[in-house]
């Protein structure tokens, strides 16, 4: 409660947009201060290599312009503020993966109580601190907590296992609870070497740890896998990362011991399998001979899919992106297909 006579600076929608746009400028400027945080985050989490952190920062910065933010928020009546608090349980599988939830809640005028993932604590904390420096009024709107409490609604992201925990603790509040998701690629056999190289980004960026990472290939019957392997050759250096290599070696040994059919190019394992979610350093592969049947299969698996990568649009509810674009979500590419701003507007 504020002291008598103390004036609170109520942030308008325009002020929030301006603050986040300035945050985008900071991320684009790549200052020595930011470099130090990036380096420290890499020491803290070996999966957070400098190229992967830089890719995440670039994607965020690309979306933080006044024009894009304004167009994104224009349909929503978020001009004033609300005293309600959104509890945010953030994931930490890739750098700054929880930033979009923070952006949504603050732009909608809510207070936020944030529980960062241990794996991504340094980057998230730095970005929050910088945002508060840019717009000091955000200091009273943002709290970082080890354990959530006194919140009105919640957005929690985790695994299928943690989702059961989230349901138990948060189920009585308005909520978005996200589970495991993966992405797939649909090949036709007509892809150029450049298209396959771009597909390599969808598979190997962030070491395949993201929900937008391609975990499975759908290929036409009789597909020449050699063309795929040749196309992704530029990514061969990934095997020099010790944690990725450990996963590659482990999965390869399991397949050899079990006598499982698999294909190996020295840095990626391709295993015929009808499942969607593949282990790290492996992509599953499934043949198809009928496009309509494939689209129907994707529809049946929609609850497991974040997006599908394809050169041609697919007539399915699963969002389709072109090769090389799965890791570059726009502001309105909402996780699990649930519009976060609609959810916040409904409960504001």
How would you describe this protein?
This protein has 348 residues and is an alpha/beta fold. The chain folds into 2 domains: 13-180, Aldehyde Dehydrogenase, Chain A, domain 1; 182-321, Aldehyde Dehydrogenase, Chain A, domain 2. It contains 12 helices and 12 strands. The strands form 2 sheets. The protein has a 7-stranded mixed β-sheet with strand order 8-9-10-7-6-11-12, sandwiched between helices. A 5-stranded parallel β-sheet has the order 3-2-1-4-5, sandwiched between helices. Residues 1-7 have low confidence and may be disordered.
The total count of helices amounts to 12
Q: Helix fraction? A: 25-40%
What is the total tally of β strands?
A: 12
Biggest sheet character:
7 strands, mixed
Q: What amount of the residues lies in strands?
A: 15-25%
Mean pLDDT: 94
CATH top level assignment of the largest domain: Alpha Beta
CATH superfamily placement of the largest domain: Aldehyde Dehydrogenase, Chain A, domain 1
- Approximate shape: globular
Poorly predicted parts: 1-7
CATH topology of the largest domain: Aldehyde Dehydrogenase, Chain A, domain 1
Total domain modules = 2
Keyphrases for this structure?
about 350 residues, alpha/beta, Aldehyde Dehydrogenase, Chain A, domain 2, about 40% helix, globular
Set down the secondary structure blueprint.
Blueprint: H1 13-29, H2 32-44, H3 50-63, H4 66-73, E1 85-89, H5 99-107, E2 111-115, H6 121-134, E3 142-144, E4 153-157, H7 160-170, E5 175-178, E6 182-186, H8 193-204, E7 214-220, H9 225-231, H10 242-258, E8 263-264, E9 269-272, E10 282-288, H11 291-300, E11 305-310, E12 320-321, H12 340-346
Parallel strand pairs: 1-2, 1-4, 2-3, 4-5, 6-7, 6-11, 7-10, 9-10, 11-12
Antiparallel strand pairs: 8-9
Helix pairs in contact: 1-3, 1-6, 2-6, 8-9
């Amino acid at each position: 409660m504020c002291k008598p006579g103390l004036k609170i600076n109520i942030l308008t929608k325009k002020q929030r947009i301006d603050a986040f746009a300035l945050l985008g400028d900071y991320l684009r400027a790549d200052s020595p201060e930011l470099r130090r945080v990036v380096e420290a985050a890499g020491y803290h989490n070996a999966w957070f290599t400098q190229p992967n952190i830089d890719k995440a920062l670039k994607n965020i910065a690309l979306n933080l312009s006044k024009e894009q933010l304004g167009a994104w928020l224009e349909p929503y009546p978020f001009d004033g503020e609300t005293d309600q608090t959104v509890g945010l349980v953030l994931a930490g599988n890739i750098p700054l993966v929880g930033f979009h939830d923070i952006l949504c809640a603050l732009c909608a005028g809510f207070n936020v109580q944030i529980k960062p993932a241990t794996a991504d604590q340094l980057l998230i904390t730095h970005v929050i601190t910088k945002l508060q420096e840019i717009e000091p009024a955000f200091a009273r709107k943002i709290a970082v907590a080890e354990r959530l409490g006194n919140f009105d609604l919640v957005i929690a992201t985790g695994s299928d296992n943690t989702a059961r925990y989230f349901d138990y603790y948060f189920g009585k509040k308005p909520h978005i609870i996200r589970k495991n998701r993966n992405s797939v690629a649909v090949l036709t056999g007509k892809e150029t070497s450049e298209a396959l190289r771009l597909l390599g980004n969808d598979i190997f960026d962030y070491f395949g740890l993201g929900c937008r990472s391609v975990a499975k290939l759908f290929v036409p019957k009789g597909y020449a896998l050699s063309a795929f392997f040749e196309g992704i050759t530029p990514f061969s250096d990934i095997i020099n990362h010790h944690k990725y290599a450990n996963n590659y070696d482990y999965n390869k040994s399991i397949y050899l011991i079990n006598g499982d059919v698999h294909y190996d190019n020295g840095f990626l394992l391709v295993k015929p399998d009808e499942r969607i979610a593949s282990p790290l350093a492996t992509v599953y592969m499934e043949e198809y001979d009928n496009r309509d049947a494939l689209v129907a299969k994707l529809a049946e698996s929609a609850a497991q899919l974040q997006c599908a990568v394809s050169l041609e649009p697919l007539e399915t509810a699963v969002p389709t992106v072109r090769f090389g674009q799965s890791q570059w979500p726009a502001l309105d590419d909402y996780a699990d297909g649930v519009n976060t701003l609609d959810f916040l507007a409904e409960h504001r």
